[in-house]
Amino acid sequence: MSDDTRSDQDPIPVAGPDTGSAAGPATGDSAGTPTRRRVLALGAVTAGAVVSIRPALAQTVGSVLNCEIPVPDPSRAGSYIDPDGKTVPARTKGAFPPSPRAFKGEEVKRAMANGSTLPGTDSQRSRAYVNYIRRLQRGQGGFTCFASLQMPRG
Amino acid sequence: MPDALYRGPPEDGLLIAPLDAFTAVYHRASGITHLLTEPAPHILAILQERALSLDSLLDRLERDYDLADGTREALAARLDELVEAGLVARL
User: Fold this and answer.
1) Quick check: B83 contacting A, CB < 8 Å?
2) Which of A25, A103, A150, B75 is 20 to 30 A from A51, comparing alpha carbons?
3) A105 vs B contacts (CB less than 8 Å)
4) Which element (helix H / strand E) includes A52?
5) What is the tally of structural domains in chain B?
6) Is the pLDDT of residue B14 over 80?
């Protein structure tokens, strides 16, 4: 039964069918409430769409703060980062080369909280990288990590 | 690789709460909460209905959504994450 991998029956509730069949009820509300066919990005292979929060507080902190944010996202590897945090072609004047290593969530959190520089960077470069991280969108590597840093810890 | 099947937990095995950019998913079996971003919640919802192979899942997503970047590789990566998190079983 459940192994029938080609079954065409019972359309998935998460999204309505492509034609505007009156407001597909969109039961998969966990993912938003699409009422018609919508765009879904699978994301870059390296993007990361899951962060797990362990039950114990100490582990929670560890889990979130040890996640990593590459600068830039591997799908744009080699791009430079301009002072506003945009990715620009390599060797663009005034922009900074990619970071040789990904930053830990904890490092980013600290840099954002008190303006300290990211490890291995000077202040201008660090600011450009932080701006880049602030601009991350879902589907990009490090987004889940960055966004989880914004969650209050209790 | 051989056609492994992927399956999510039963419907009552998860508590799901949308939180703006995230979907928070509490997994009753493990007591662990996960923060998911698109497309993980969509994948999970499908795999809670029935077990599917990677290719069938991709077909299904292509039917239901306009996939912005529907590569098999990317989907495999998303599945690996869900498996690693314990939210999806590879059969």
Assistant:
1) no
2) A25
3) none
4) strand A50-53
5) 1
6) yes
